[in-house]
Amino acid sequence: MVLATFRLLNTPAAAVPQEAAVLLCEGPPRAWFILDPGIAGALLRSDRVIPTSGQRYYAAVSGLARSDFPLLSEAFERTPLSLSGSAHRDARSRITPLYRRVEAGIDHWIDAFCAAYLEDLRTRIAPDLMQAASDFSDRVSRAMAARELDIGWQEIPPVPNEIFMLFPSAARLRQIEEKFAAIHDMVTTCLRSQGRDSEDFWPIFTLMMMNRDAMQGTLAHMFCHLARGTVLGSASECAIAASNVSLLQCREVVEDCEIAGHSWSCGDLLQISPYLLHQRAPPPAGTDFTFGAGPHACPGRKLSLRILDALIRALRTQPLPEGFFIPIPRLFRQIILTAET
To answer: Are 207 and 106 in contact (CB under 8 A)?
Structure first.
C-alpha cells in the first residue's frame, strides 16, 4: 500500500541519506516530511504548530469549498486542536468542564458498559477486528455525550467513521456532512428542550469526535494483538504501541519560527509519519503520537486511557475465544520519494 508520494526539490531520490532529518516537498504551500523523531517531537510540543484545519485539509484533498460542508468546517474550526492563541485557549476552556464532568462520573458505569459490549461482540460470527474497534469507540463516545444530555446512547446517531479517513473522496465528504447534520439536529433539539444553549453542542461533539479518534487506533491495535494471542499490557502501553504504527499526521505552522534548529515559515505543512519514524529510531521520551503533546495535546487523554483500562480488565475477566477475529492481511506501507524532473 502506497502511503504517499513526495517529489523532492533539487534532490535525486537515490541521494536522500538515511540520516536525513527533513525533506522539502514541492508547493505551494511548502510541505516538509519529517524524518527525525527528535524534530517531530519538538514540533508536536510547540504552540506554533497545530493540527491542519479540517476545512483546509479537506479542501486541498477534494477541491470542495466551505459551502459544501459547512457543519464539518465549523466543527474543525471550533475544536481546540485546530486553533491557536486566544481562540485555542477559549475553546479549551469551554470543553475542559465537560471533560471533568465525564471523568468524575465514568467510574459509575464504564465497567458495566465494557462488559455489555463484549457480550454483544461474542454474538457475532468471525467479526472484523477493525469494525469491532470502530463500533466500541463509537458507542462509548455516544454514551459519554448521552450521559451529559440525560438520554440513552442509542438515541444519538453514530459519529461517521469516514471522518477519520486519511483521504476521503468528495462523495464521501458529502455523506459525512449529512450524517453530521443528523447528530447536530438531534443534540441541539435535546439541548433546547432542556432549556440549555444550543452552543453547548460544540463541546459535546468535540468530546465525541476527539475521543473516538484517539481510541479507535489504539483499540484496533489491541485487538490485533489479541488475535495473535498476545497478552495486553496497560492502556498507556497499548496507546504508545499503537501510535508507532499510525500512518500519517499533518500539522501546520502558524507563524515564522525556529524549532529544533530548523527555520519554519507560517503556512508550512508538516507531514509526520509515526510509522516511518518508529522504523528509524524510538520516539523521544514523553512523545505520545496517539494523543499528541504540548498545548495541542488531546484533552481527553486521561479519559480515553481510563476507558481502555476498563476494557482491558473486562477482556482479562471475560477473554475472547482464540481465533475470534477474522485475520487481516499485512499492510505494506511505503513512502515513495521521487526526484524532480
So the answer is: no
Cβ atoms within 10 Å of 167's Cβ, excluding its own: 11
Task: Identify whether 252 is part of a domain.
Answer: no
CATH of the domain at 327: 1.10.630.10
CB 74 within 8 A of CB 82: no
Q: Is the Cβ–Cβ distance between 72 and 180 less than 8 Å?
A: yes
- Which residue stretches of 68-109 are H helix? 70-78, 85-105
Q: Is 340 exposed, middle or buried (0-12, 13-18, 19+ CB in 10 A)?
A: exposed
pLDDT tens track for 201-223: 999 988 888 777 778 778 887 88
Residue 253 domain flag: no
The answer to whether residue 270 is domain-embedded is: yes
Burial 23-57 (b: 16+ CB within 10 A, else e): bebeeeebbbbbbbbbbbbbbbbbebbbbbbbbbb
Instruction: Give the Cβ contact number of residue 61 at 10 Å.
Output: 15
**How many structural domains comprise the chain?**
1
Q: What is the pTM of this model?
A: 0.79
Residue 263 pLDDT > 90: no
Cis peptide before 28 (omega within 30 of 0): yes
Q: From CA 195, how far away is CA 128, in angstroms rounded?
A: 42
Ranked by mean pLDDT, the top range of 98-112, 228-242, 261-275 is 98-112
73-85 pLDDT per residue, tens: 888 778 787 788 8
- Cα angle value 152/156/162 (rounded, 5°): 140
**What is the domain extent for residue 137?**
2-245+262-339
- The helix (H) or strand (E) run that includes residue 262 is strand 262-264
Residue in the block written with cell 479518534? 213
- Backbone phi, then psi, for 15, in 5-degree steps? -90, 0
Task: Please write the tens of the pLDDT for every residue from 27-57.
Answer: 556 777 787 788 888 888 888 988 876 666 6
Any domain includes 250: no
Burial class (CB in 10 A: 0-12, 13-18, 19+), 135: buried
